[in-house]
Amino acid sequence: MTKFLHTMIRVTDPDATIEFFELIGLKETKRFDSEQGRFTLIFLAAPGQEGIAEVELTHNWDPEVYTGGRNFGHLAYRVENIYETCQRLMDAGVTINRPPRDGHMAFVRSPDGISVELLQDGHLPPAEPWASMPNTGVW
What we know:
The protein folds into two domains: 7-72, 2,3-Dihydroxybiphenyl 1,2-Dioxygenase, domain 1; 80-132, no CATH class. Helices cover 14% and strands 37% of the residues. The chain has helices at 14-23, 82-91, and strands at residues 3-10, 27-34, 39-45, 54-60, 72-79, 96-98, 105-109, 115-120. The longest helix has 10 residues, at 14-23. The chain is globular and about 45 Å long.
């Protein structure tokens, strides 16, 4: 079973963006700061939809100008078996940009170039060919 998880957008002013989404009824559900990665993730959802259909705000601490839709990040879906899903996509000619080496996460792109994150509920044991497959592009 596939389940929609979240849509990610990159933001330059998290406080202003949170205020905007609060005006339309969303509330912050969780926040994660990564010192090593130099970013903050902030999740927002409408009341009663926490963990169901969220907006993930990604704030990269180092200034960056977003052009050409770069501020739109990705769609995310939980899948029943990440290896089977990626194999089905690859068999159909889809490039796996970030393979599920960890048995948990992969990134692919739609025909229109939209990044799609696939997440396994939990982690499957690492398996070939995925464990040794390199990244093939921007995810």
